[in-house]
Amino acid sequence: MGGTFDPIHNGHLGIAQSVAEQLDFDRVLFIPTGNPNFKQDRKVTPGPARAHMVKLAIKGHEHFELDTCEVDRAGITYTADTLKELTERFPGAELYFIMGADSAATLVHWRRAEQVADLCHIVVVQRPGQSMEFVRAALESSPIAFSVRYVDVPQVDVSSTDIRERVRRGDTIEDMLPRAVAEYIENNGLYKE
To answer: Structural domain of residue 113, as residue ranges?
Structure first.
């Protein structure tokens, strides 16, 4: 499960737990993006801080692991590179890439999307305000043969953008993410500017 995780929140954790249970996954790797190609025009919290928040959030979840391959990799981060690295590290593993409908709708335009399709199955989950029909149409009309699973997960209307805005305004975020992550944000003065 890749993402900017700026910050990771209860929605991310709920999606991962639900998908892992429904598809009987051995483990879910949380892979914070390093230098994401699609956010070059935005300010993103440094990768090590986002990775640390993920580590705090998944502590105690038996089948969740942090993987910092993208944070550790120099240059712009591309999913195809990450999947290639994972296939080399875990030979024979069947890889699934969990993503929200919003990301899945753009998948056909990703750099080396054909390689992504060759290296993993795609798991698409509903996100509040996103149309699954639009995603299905986009992926099914693509010349790229993606292997796609659509999984229903509990809907949690929380976003990292909303959390950052709440912190800027001084509003509470305690019910939106694990306590340890909220404390880390507070202790490090994240999202205040």
So the answer is: 97-151
- The C-alpha angle with vertex 18 and arms to 14 and 22, in degrees rounded to 5, equals 175
Residue 90 domain flag: no
30 Ramachandran zone, left/alpha/beta (phi>0; psi -120 to 50):
beta
159 and 143 in one domain? no
Same domain? 159 vs 72: yes
110 and 59, same domain (yes or no): no
Q: Are strands 2-3 and 148-151 parallel, antiparallel or unpaired?
A: unpaired
Residues 144 and 162 in one domain: no
pLDDT digits (tens, 9 = 90+) for 153-187: 988 889 999 999 999 999 999 999 999 999 999 99
pTM score, whole prediction: 0.93
DSSP state letters, 37-89: GGGTTS----HHHHHHHHHHHHTT-TTEEE--HHHHS-S-B-HHHHHHHHHHH
The total domain count for the chain is 2
Amino acid, res. 21 = E
Instruction: Give the model confidence (pLDDT) of 134-160 as tens digits.
Output: 999 999 999 999 999 999 998 888 999
CA distance 12 to 3: 9
Q: Work out the number of other CB atoms within 10 angstroms of the CB of residue 154.
A: 11
